[in-house]
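On clarity, I found the account of how folds are encoded harder to follow than it need be. What matters is that the chain and its backbone geometry are given together, residue for residue. For the editor and my fellow referees, an illustration may be useful. For illustration, here is how one protein appears when written out as sequence plus structure tokens:

___
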Amino acid sequence: MLKKFLEQNEIAACFDESLKKHTTFRVGGNAMCIAMPDTAKKAANLIKFLNQNKIKHYFLGNGSNVIFRDEGFDGVIIKTSNLKELNLNGNLLCAGAGVSMTAAAKLAQENSLAGIECCYGIPGNIGGGVYMNAGAYGGEISACLESVDYIDEKGNLHTITKEQCDFSYRHSAFMKNDWFIVSARFRLNEGDSAQLWSFMEDIMNRRRDKQPLDKPSAGSSFKRPVGYFAAALIDECGLKGLTVGGAQVSDKHAGFIVNIGDATCQDIVRLADKVTRIVLEEKGVQLEKEMIIV
């Protein structure tokens, strides 16, 4: 029934697919199906079909902040990778959920437009960036966001403004609702292309110098506690290099848990929980995971 629906609606899909191929941490079992609609209408029809037939599903972007369990996902992963629209109309940038944040930032910079340069180098897509209000080096993707198009659980398309997205640190209204982000619009400001590029190059150089980009990870493993830096707390507890199975606290950046071999989801969770417990015991600060475990 599902396969027939996907074929009739011309939605690209793969079955019994390893989730290791779809996450930057390279962990997780197999998904029953991964579907990749390339238009909002196809995505809406798919979501409506899945809900009507009570088929479990999960929305996935670039998989850079998500870890799937070792037993896999017995349902449909709806991936945004084919929603690739990216264009400029004056200072309004429109980006599909599957566009990389780096590509969007680069297009803006090339056209002397400022506002999303902090997203350059973040290994995620626009949909995931909006979902978690991604950011780095003092900026957040929500800063110049104007509106978001999304599909609700009934398959209806809506547009909401930035104010309705309830943004805060690593949070948005999308986290509380079963909504599929289709695209977003950003109202950018005039900037100097050369200065923007210099800033973006500096961001990338700092990432290369400080972060373990040579090993699979989900980026920063813990949210920043109020008044502290998670990496500094972990480092002060002497936890760099701490290993559980194939998962390790990076010896380059203590805020990253990395896959040093054939890590499992269980390895990563056990290590994150161990780090959280030790930091709480020694520093009195409660860490919270930034990565999402499905």
